[in-house]
Automatic annotation (TrEMBL):
InterPro entries: SusD-like_2, TPR-like_helical_dom_sf. This is SusD-like proteins. Transmembrane segments: none annotated. SUPFAM superfamilies: TPR-like. Pfam families: SusD-like_2.
Length: 501
């Protein structure tokens, strides 16, 4: 595939330092000094390729770390107390790695009518980058951040509400901008997501807008409803062939290990297993979910080979969890399709919108189709899909809360190993419920946000301190603006039982 060849060559193209980010002081100078590189020699297509590749790989890589543990898709062998203060630098470091470069693509394509579509695509991608950053921290620099050679060294922090409002509007405008002017220069194969396909970019923009609108539903119902009603009949990601995704290169095709599936790399050089998190298996085992053999490698545990490992265990509690499921064939393969957004999620978003009486679509039909799209994505046998849909714990019935739990849980499963999204949805909906060990004692909740990096208190002290005060304190338990659902977090029904599985 041509896009794979582009990935392979990324490291050898000099100008791509703008997209990959500075590795040395010399690169830093090249990246910021307008005397060294001028607009007439900068190719926005190359920068765009680098931003797409590196930001997608970064979001995927985060799932193999603390965000993966918070989302409960992953559990580290060395996992201890997740609530101890730490220096959470990623995704805050995306400013210098990705935001400054996507802003440069936007700037370089803003004046030329022939680059109208390119400009819209860059604006859409900027929203994708930023929504994960603000989801992780809450209030962050936005309007004054990473704006090139004229950058403000100490940017103010914008509220998450302001950022979300702007991202939703930007996605609406960018979607409308696509295809609005004829005779366009396409990114072509430099666009390793959709190869410059305007229709697919429009579907992605609209689907991302729907994700963001649903995310703010409990914080600002009016804002959410406005955008959901406006976008629900627009083109959305509908089939798995339209998924926003990027396939890693096989080891034989790349000399650069950063282009290869990091889970595969881990198992080639490390005997330490990558455990599966407790919550993901806790909701899949009771329904005999046919995706388990694809997602997980079973352990030798005689009673529950697919059980996952809880986090925040004491040393004593870790002993019964030496036999747990590890990453399965999907993730351990030498190539992996990193999902940015899939059709299944879009159907679950639509199902929730209908459930909330924001739209007139069928909650149940959309829920079923969401499950089917997820099963199709992983080539699950049709007979197994039918059995799963008929399982009593899957059929969409019960109280309103029980139905919402099923919609939320199936969406969470469909987003497997998208750590940023899984963690955000767990915080927003309360599902799946999480069992935590008592390494810290009485605290039994997944953190609601990351604390700001230590470096911010050295370089931007007045603004970060003001932001910390505005959100109610720079603490892990402080809720971000959209985290407004009452009664959360829900307590796991077996929280007082050990072992819980």
């Amino acid at each position: 595939m041509r896009e794979n060849m582009i990935l392979k060559k990324i490291a050898t193209i000099i100008i791509v330092v703008l997209a990959i980010g500075a590795c040395t002081s010399d690169f830093e100078e090249i990246n910021t000094n307008p005397i060294l590189i001028t607009d007439d020699v900068i190719n926005p297509s190359v920068i765009f390729t680098g931003v797409l590749k590196n930001s997608i790989f970064a979001s995927y890589g985060d799932t193999g770390g603390i965000i993966g543990e918070f989302s409960q898709y992953f559990a580290s062998v060395s996992s201890g107390n997740l609530l101890r203060q730490s220096n959470y630098t990623s995704p805050f470091n995306w400013y210098r790695n990705y935001v400054i470069n996507i802003n440069e693509v936007i700037r370089l394509t803003s004046e030329d009518p022939r680059k109208n579509d390119q400009n819209a695509m860059a604006r859409i991608w900027k929203a994708w980058i930023y929504h994960m950053m603000t989801d992780a921290y809450g209030d962050i620099p936005y309007s004054e951040a990473a704006i090139g050679v004229d950058a403000i060294n100490q940017p103010k922090y914008d509220t998450q509400e302001t950022i979300y409002t702007d991202m939703l509007n930007e996605l609406k405008l960018a979607s409308a901008q696509l295809g609005s002017i004829g005779d366009q220069e396409s990114f072509g194969n430099a666009d390793i997501l959709y190869k410059g396909d305007v229709d697919n970019w429009r579907k992605f923009a609209n689907s991302l807008r729907l994700r963001l609108a649903i995310r703010v539903r409990f914080a600002n119902e009016s804002l959410a409803s406005q955008h959901i009603k406006d976008v629900i009949n627009a083109p959305l990601i509908d089939e798995n062939s339209e998924n926003a995704s990027l396939k890693t290169l096989p080891p034989s095709a790349s000399e650069n290990a950063s282009n290869v599936n990091f889970v595969y790399n881990h198992y080639q050089t490390n005997i330490t297993p990558m455990y599966v998190g407790f919550a993901i298996t806790d909701v899949m085992i009771p329904t005999d979910d046919p995706r388990m053999p694809i997602f997980f490698t079973p352990s030798q545990h005689p009673e529950s080979p697919y059980r996952g490992r809880p986090i925040q265990l004491t040393q004593e509690q870790k002993v019964p969890y030496e036999e747990v499921a590890t990453m399965g064939p999907l993730l351990k393969a030498d190539t992996y399709e990193i999902i940015v957004m899939n059709a299944a999620e879009v159907y679950f978003l639509r199902s929730e919108a209908a459930f909330a009486n924001i739209t007139n679509e069928s909650t149940e039909n959309l829920y079923i189709t969401g499950i089917e799209r997820s099963m199709e994505q992983y080539n699950v046998d049709e007979a197994d899909v039918t059995d799963f849909l008929n399982h009593e714990k899957v059929v969409l019935n019960g109280t309103n809360e029980e139905q919402f739990e099923k919609i939320s849980t199936q969406k969470y499963i469909s987003m497997f190993f998208q750590g940023h999204q899984g963690w955000a949805e767990m915080r927003r909906t309360g599902y799946p419920k999480v069992w935590l060990g008592n390494e810290l004692g009485v605290i039994d909740y997944i953190p609601r946000r990351f604390t700001y990096p230590n470096d911010e208190y050295l370089k931007n002290e007045s603004n970060v301190s003001a932001a910390a005060s505005n959100i109610g304190g720079d603490k892990l338990e402080t809720r971000v603006w959209w985290d407004k659902r009452p009664g959360l977090p829900f307590r796991h029904p077996l929280q007082d039982v050990f072992p819980p599985n």
